[in-house]
Amino acid sequence: MFTGRTLYPADPTRLFILWIADIIVQERVIINESAKQNVPRYAEGEYLDSLAEIFKDTYRLQAQAAKTTFRFYLSTKLATQQLVPKGTRVTVDGKITFETMENLYIRAGELYGDIPAVCQIVGTIGNGFVPGQITQIVDLFPYYEKVENITTSGGGAETETDEAFYKRMRESMESFSTAGPMGAYIYHAKTASSQVADVSAISTERGIVDVRVLLKDGELPNKEVLKEVEAALSADKTRPLTDLVTVSAPEVVSFDIELTYYIPQLGTNSAAIIEQDVAEAIREYTKWQTEKMGRDINPSYLISLLMKTGIKRVDIVSPKYTLVDGNKVAVLQKTNVINGGFEDE
Fold first, then answer.
1. Order of strands, edge to edge, in the sheet holding 313-318?
2. Among residues 106, 70, 108, 112, which one has the least CA distance to residue 87?
3. Cis status, amide bond into 319, omega within 30 of 0
4. Does the residue 59 lie in any domain?
5. What is the Cα–Cα distance from 112 to 105, expressed in whole angstroms?
6. Span 297-330, pLDDT tens digits
7. 344: Cβ–Cβ under 8 A, 6 or more apart, which residues?
8. One Pfam family for this entry, by name (predicted)?
9. Which residues contact 256 (CB under 8 A, 6 or more apart)?
10. Torsion angles phi and psi, residue 245, rounded to 5
């Protein structure tokens, strides 16, 4: 335009200019991404870790190993105490192995003793083994008869994600107060484990704080996770001396999903595609409904998700709109979704 020369698609000069323009665009994209790493909202990975240094005692939560409690049985009663050494290993399948965290002394005349143990592999891989499921001992000791876990293993967590870390960084400002504000309890509870997704802190009586904990994907915490959160909140530098803090799982408000949907006769999508989309909408609604405490059971949101799939209409028997208090969480019990067939417009 400036020179008055027409550059045709195959003109070498045009190709050279396009090559230069491509480099300039890529360079500007890189510069833009680099600049965004200076802002916590957009920073990722090590950049976000570095920015966290400007916040008070806030660091990315590292992966944690699952814990459980073992009960070791002796084959006979002894006149003296029997030692189960620290580090005694018990495995699930030869790959996932737990080891005791301290020495266990089974007293004279007793047939068993209990001791906490930790998984040798960090992360969520050690979670969810129910009582009696971990029973294969690796390190034998005298008079051993059998061993089993008496609590469901839990507390294992992966490294904290950027999204969760950034959110906790913002919440860390609440921790400056020593007067026991709700935000401080929420922040300190989340520092216990990256598995903690939602926290409710309510005081119904003077000096008594009721803390409820919900894990990722709406999972209810087991005893191992609750112990970790309670320990984090009970630290001398965290808990106001006048507060009595209790930590527990949220109360459950059960609901069902029972509905019938109808497909338009001349719809643009096939029945098979709509069926898949409806199933995905149900999963999305379930996740949304159960991942946060105090979230009312809201069938209107379910309807909005279903209508986006291309169905004509939906008859919902349940759930019904239900208020959910701040220390409670909605939990799905059963699902019954029926395809009602085709209907004319």
1. 313-318, 251-264, 328-343
2. 70
3. yes
4. no
5. 10
6. 999 999 999 999 989 999 999 999 999 998 899 9
7. 264, 265
8. Baseplate_J
9. 318, 319, 332, 333, 334, 335, 336
10. -105, 130
Question: Are 139 and 86 within 8 A, CB to CB?
Answer: no
Comparing CA positions, the residue from 91, 113, 88 lying closest to residue 102 is 88
- Comparison of pLDDT for 158 and 266, the residue scoring more: 158
pLDDT given at position 177: 63
CA quadruple 332, 251, 189, 42: dihedral sign: positive
Is residue 196 within 8 A of residue 189, CB to CB? The reply is yes
> Long-range pairs for 5-11 at CB < 8 Å and ≥24 separation?
none
Q: What average pLDDT does the chain have? A: 89
- Domain limits for position 301: 252-343
Helices within the chain (DSSP H only): 12-36, 45-51, 162-171, 182-190, 223-233, 271-290, 299-307
153-163 pLDDT, tens digit per residue, is: 988 989 999 98
User: Any idea what DSSP says for residue 186?
Assistant: H
From 215, 249, 283, the end of a domain falls on 249
Q: What is the mean pLDDT of residues 328-341?
A: 93
Looking at residue 341, what is its pLDDT?
87
Q: State the burial class of residue 184 (Cβ atoms within 10 Å of its Cβ: 0-12, 13-18, 19+).
A: buried
Q: Chain-centre distance of CA 229, in angstroms?
A: 14
Task: For residue 102, give every residue at least 6 positions away whose Cβ sits within 8 Å of its Cβ, in sequence order, or none.
Answer: 86, 115, 116
For residue 287, give both structure tokens. 């996740």
Which amino acid would we find at residue 194? S
Pair (245, 257) in one structural domain: no
The β-bridge partners of 313 are: 262
